[in-house]
Structures are given as structure tokens and as C-alpha cells.
Specification:
The chain has one domain: Immunoglobulin-like. The longest helix has 21 residues. The chain has 1 helix and 11 strands, in the order H-E-E-E-E-E-E-E-E-E-E-E. It is mainly beta. It is globular.
Length: 167
Amino acid sequence: MSLSTLTRRAALIVASTLALSVQAHDYRVGDLVIDHPWARATAPGQKAGGAYLKIENRGPSADRLLSAAAPAERVGRTELHSMRMEGTVMRMREVAAIDIPAGQTVTLEPGGLHIMMMGLTSPLKAGETLPLVLRFEKAGSVTVQVQVEALGSAPAKGHEAGGHHKH
């Protein structure tokens, strides 16, 4: 076997492995694809944190995210929230549900829609994962693994930096 053939095969193996690791952070339930659930690490003593992700609705009808739940031994309560500017003040409010229109992607991100985790019993540490159960009106429930990223970090490259569509 020539060196160039070995090099091509090695490149294919690496590409395949990377593709599988990216797919491992995507989840499906019904017509919905949940992409890259993540949270920022929290500081010691911090009692609240946010979880973020993208939800793509590949189906012909709308759905709604009704709730999110984290393990009670880690999180006191979990709520769906929105953030928006009202004049010069940023307001955060609990919302009853988050609409997921047919054929569209909804992004839960810092400064916008997000999942608020309150009453943290211990800090969220970079590198750990936290299970989160998402309950949808039509698609049902799915458990995702939220990847905790370093305090002050942005989402993993490719997830916010043009790797996926924003709608």
C-alpha cells in the first residue's frame, strides 16, 4: 500500500471519528433534532445557571417545548426563560412554553430564550455533563446530556460560528 493511500485512509478514519463525536451531541425525538446542549461552568456559591441548545423541527407541524428537568440532587428547579431588553434594562421572565415552528430552528442562547437551572447544590464544572429531560407537546420526552463548558467560554466552534443555521 502506498503512503498516499495510507494517508487518505487515516484521514477518512479521523473524519469519521470526528463526525461520530459531533453526532453524539445531537438528539432526536419525533420530528425534532436537539443540537449541542451546553451550559457554562458556574462559580463557587453561584446558585443559578443556564442551559442552551438548538431545536430543529423537521416535521410538517409545529411543536412546543413544555418543560425541562434536571436531577433534583443537583438542581432545585428548572424553568424555561426569555431575556429581552425593555428600554435600557435587561428583563428575564419565565415562559410557559417555547414554540418550535414547523421547518424551523429555535436557538436557546445567552441573552435570549434559555433553560434556567435554579438552586444548584454544587457548581457546574467544566468538562462534566448534566442530564436534562426535555418534554415536548407532540414529540414527547427526551433526555439530553448538557456539556458544561469553561466559565466565560463561548459555545464550541461550529455550533454558533456558522456551523449550523440560525433562524
